[in-house]
């Protein structure tokens, strides 16, 4: 089997989608039935790190949208023997559909969170998404919200949740250098890690800041560590100042991958009081460091904690409920929950192998006519990010 893989980003990228693509590519390369994965990426920057031996990683499309399209088409014709097309984002579906028609190969569409939820639907997106041979979702909530506007049959859907590399984390003491860097010596710490972007205000930073006045009255030593960077940072700083919470909220800025586990270990509780997460991968990372976590009952975070089995669930709009959950989490011991192995990377590899085995033998073409298949690459540029 040879797989042609289209991705927004993967190696050299940041964020949950890039991590998912890295894990998916690695899992494919570990499959003994896969001889090659040819990946063309839209974004990312060097260094790309250690790449799997079976991977051809094309970064020539990083310079722009038009160049990316050219490189995808070039890769398709250079790898006409590809068995399967994997589309790593809904925005790339037009290209994947076109290539599946030209090459006569099945294609898989991956969806994650708000990229595929109702509210982002359009006739154009629906047209292409309906023609995927298989829709692969990271969570049930994302699949349900996707199917509310794009009714793909059950038989053409599958859920493959995020993976966690347990050996990359683990419990441990708080890093003394980081404690000094942020002035956290002798403090109790609640933490959230994520992008601080204005278009992603569903991450739950505001909810946690809003609940701090309910907590610091009887816990004056509590600090809220906001880890991450983005264009919403100034607004959050201003909000903290307006509430008089400057001494209780610490902004770390961007966290280097090499320091991520140590940042998690600074926390006594990890809080993701979000309303728009497709899954909540950071919850897995925090739990893998032994940190008690609080997830939202209103989005994919509930699946990351297995509906309350390995982490607390709260309504992020209920301030009293959230405050009570934070108090309880701060008193819990730091242990890695046994149920976290459900998301272990080794199990992810098995799930991916099962997906490949199910979709490739069929070798059927996607539904729909072929007149649109010869649409020009220049017109497809309008569909891409």
Topology of this structure?
Blueprint: E1 2-7, H1 16-30, E2 36-41, E3 55-58, H2 65-78, E4 84-87, H3 93-103, E5 107-111, H4 123-129, E6 134-137, H5 140-147, E7 157-159, H6 176-182, E8 188-193, H7 205-215, E9 222-227, H8 233-242, E10 249-253, H9 260-265, E11 269-271, H10 281-288, E12 293-296, H11 301-304, E13 312-314, H12 319-330, H13 345-359, H14 377-380
Parallel strand pairs: 1-2, 1-4, 2-3, 4-5, 5-6, 6-7, 8-9, 8-11, 9-10, 11-12, 12-13
Helix pairs in contact: 1-13, 7-12
Q: Which descriptors apply to this entry?
A:
385 residues; alpha/beta; 6-stranded parallel sheet; 13 strands; elongated
Summarize the structure.
This protein is an alpha/beta fold. It is built from 14 helices and 13 strands.
Describe this structure in words.
With 385 residues, the chain is an alpha/beta fold. Helix content is 34%, strand content 15%. It contains 14 helices and 13 strands. The protein has a seven-stranded parallel β-sheet with strand order 3-2-1-4-5-6-7, sandwiched between helices. Strand 12 (293-296), helix 11 (301-304) and strand 13 (312-314) form a beta-alpha-beta unit.
Task: Output the radius of gyration.
Answer: 22 Å
What is the general shape?
A: elongated
Task: Give the proportion of residues in helices.
Answer: 25-40%
- The largest sheet has its strands arranged as 3-2-1-4-5-6-7
Return the structural class: alpha/beta
Order of secondary-structure elements: EHEEHEHEHEHEHEHEHEHEHEHEHHH
* Strand elements, count: 13
């Amino acid at each position: 089997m040879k797989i042609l893989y289209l991705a927004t980003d993967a190696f050299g990228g940041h964020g949950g989608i890039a991590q998912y693509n890295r894990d998916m590519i690695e899992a494919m390369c570990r499959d003994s039935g896969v001889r090659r994965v040819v990946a063309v990426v839209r974004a990312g920057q060097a260094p790309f790190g250690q790449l799997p031996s079976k991977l051809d990683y094309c970064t020539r499309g990083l310079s722009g949208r038009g160049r990316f399209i050219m490189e995808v088409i070039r890769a398709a014709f250079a790898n006409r023997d590809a068995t399967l097309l994997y589309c790593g984002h809904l925005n790339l579906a037009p290209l994947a559909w076109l290539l599946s028609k030209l090459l006569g190969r099945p294609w898989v569409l991956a969806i994650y969170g708000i990229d595929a939820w109702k509210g982002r639907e359009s006739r154009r997106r629906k047209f292409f998404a309906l023609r995927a041979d298989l829709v692969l979702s990271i969570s049930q909530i994302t699949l349900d919200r996707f199917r509310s506007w794009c009714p793909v049959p059950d038989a053409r859907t599958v859920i493959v949740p995020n993976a966690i590399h347990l050996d990359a984390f683990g419990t441990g003491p708080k890093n003394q250098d980081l404690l000094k860097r942020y002035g956290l010596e002798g403090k109790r710490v609640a933490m959230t890690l994520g992008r601080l972007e204005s278009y992603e205000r569903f991450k739950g930073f505001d909810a946690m800041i809003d609940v701090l006045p309910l907590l610091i009255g009887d816990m004056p030593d509590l600090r809220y560590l906001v880890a991450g960077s983005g264009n919403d940072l100034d607004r959050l700083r201003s909000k903290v100042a307006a509430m008089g919470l400057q001494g209780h909220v610490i902004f770390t800025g961007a966290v280097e991958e090499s320091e991520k586990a140590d940042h998690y270990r600074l926390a006594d509780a990890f809080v993701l009081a979000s309303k728009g997460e497709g899954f909540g991968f950071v919850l897995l990372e925090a739990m893998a460091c032994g940190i008690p976590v609080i997830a939202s009952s209103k989005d994919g975070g509930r699946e990351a904690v297995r509906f309350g089995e390995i982490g607390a669930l709260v309504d992020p709009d209920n301030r009293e409920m959230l405050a009570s959950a934070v108090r309880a989490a701060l008193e819990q011991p730091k242990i890695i929950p046994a149920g976290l192995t459900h998301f272990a990377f080794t199990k992810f590899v098995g799930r991916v192998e099962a997906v490949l085995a199910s979709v490739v033998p069929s070798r059927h073409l996607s539904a729909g006519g072929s007149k649109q298949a010869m649409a020009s690459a220049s017109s497809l540029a309008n569909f891409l990010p």
